Known about the structure:
Blueprint: H1 2-25, H2 30-33, E1 35-43, E2 58-65, E3 68-77, E4 80-90, E5 96-98, E6 106-113, E7 118-127, E8 130-139, H3 146-158, E9 166-168
Antiparallel strand pairs: 1-2, 1-8, 1-9, 2-3, 3-4, 4-5, 5-6, 6-7, 7-8
Amino acid sequence: MRGNLLTALLGLLVVLAAGKEDLGLQNFNLTQFSGMWYEIALASNPEHQSPSPGRKVGAVRVEQDGAQLSLTSVSDHMNLCVKEKNQAMKGDAPGKFKLPLDSGGKEVIVVATDYKTYAIMSIVLHRGGKPSSVLKLYTRTLDHNEKATEKFVEKAVEQGLSVSDVRLLTKDLTCVNLLS
């Protein structure tokens, strides 16, 4: 009996926590979210992390394009700057977007944002039948934001990652300068 009660309470807490997160994005505002975001940290399981230890800061420019979202991004991939332009469609929930299969079949989910200083996004890749995800921290400026970093670590742990799975990116603007 005691075990069933504890299981029921744990289930209720999980539902309440999930509901709380969903409420945070119920009023997701794409206009406020649009603009330039700098990728300054990421968190993923070690098998999904790039072997290059000094990964450079990346960036994404988010713009509304009718019913779609236009994303122009630059990132460091194995010490090479990669620039991509993608059209994303709104997903089945506020703050969720889908990129077509020819762009890797990604889903982008805004997990948390205050629109002005930080955004935490989960990028889910659908390759080889097994989805993998990376949590990324974006900020509006390149200045260190301790509050955003703490929130990012908190969200990473909530998603089953450890603090050691979080990596701050090197403040090297080589890739970011490609968006100019």
